[in-house]
Amino acid sequence: MREFGLIGYPLGHSFSQSYFTEKFKKLGIDDANYRLHPISEISKIKNIISSHKNLCGLNVTTPYKELVIPYLDELDPVALKLGNVNTIKITRKNDTGFLKGYNTDIYGFTKTLELFKLPKTGNKALILGSGGSAKTVAYVLHTKGIEFTHVSRVPSNINQIGYWNISNQVIENHNIIINATPVGMHPFKENKPNIPYHFISKNHICIDLVYNPEKTVFMSKCEDKNAKTTNGLVMLYEQADKAWEIWNND
């Protein structure tokens, strides 16, 4: 039986196990299973690899997308450039696991952007967050020629601003707003990023990478201003399918 799974902490919000279980059922795959591995520190990945001899692949979620890198043997060039991994392929030689890291979130977020008919020019994005997911978003936006600004609780460079810096003008100058933080995720569903929602308009596209709950307070507040919105489910499913492709590619 081939094993696959997800590492992160906590994992109570995750839909990954149910998604892959349903995928295996639909495809008639009866020689694979997918399980969650909530680990309180990244060093415990070594125990998972050594104790699950049939483990062929792992997904990686918050807070380990960057912290997992020192435990890998090789990085895909894009993951290396980004410094961010959400998929690990495991091959074994003489019972020793060889771990190669990839980033399939790039593909997932690209597909999310394709849900909207963006203007051909003049797009500017406000990325809420500066962690691993925010870096993935920034990478995709850069490849599409979309200017962006990071918003951070603790700005650390000239390309970042604080939440207190978000004015009417800042909102008006950025037609895309992306929540790349876990704020509002289950079980803290009542939370929302601290931005001035009253400045948002029908001209905005607001994307929340959170997918549990399916409609976050962030999305509801933006919809109240007639903005176009979506959650992180497309990104989740698309990156998962891309990970499955990697795990099964010899």
What does the secondary structure layout of this molecule look like, with pairings?
Elements lengths: L1 E7 L7 H12 L4 E7 L6 H7 L3 E6 L13 E2 L1 H6 L4 E7 L2 E7 L2 H9 L10 E5 L3 H12 L3 E6 L7 E3 L5 H6 L2 E4 L25 E4 L8 H7 L4 E3 L2 H15 L3
Parallel strand pairs: 1-2, 1-3, 4-6, 7-8, 7-10, 8-9, 10-11, 11-12
Antiparallel strand pairs: 3-5, 5-6
Helix pairs in contact: 4-5, 4-8
How would you sum up this structure, described in words?
The protein has 250 residues and is an alpha/beta fold. The chain folds into two domains: 2-103, 3-Layer(aba) Sandwich (Rossmann fold), CATH 3.40.50.10860; 106-232, 3-Layer(aba) Sandwich (Rossmann fold), CATH 3.40.50.720. Helices cover 30% and strands 24% of the residues. The protein has eight helices and twelve strands. The protein has helices spanning 16-27, 45-51, 77-82, 105-113, 132-143, 168-173, 217-223, 233-247, and strands at 2-8, 32-38, 55-60, 74-75, 87-93, 96-102, 124-128, 147-152, 160-162, 176-179, 205-208, 228-230. The chain has a six-stranded mixed β-sheet with strand order 2-1-3-5-6-4, sandwiched between helices. The protein has a six-stranded parallel β-sheet with strand order 9-8-7-10-11-12, with helices on both faces. Helix 5 (132-143) links the parallel strand 7 and strand 8 (147-152). Helix 4 packs across helix 5 (132-143) and helix 4 packs across helix 8. The longest helix is centred in the last third of the chain and has 15 residues, at 233-247. It starts with a strand and ends with a helix. The model has no long low-confidence stretch (mean pLDDT 95).
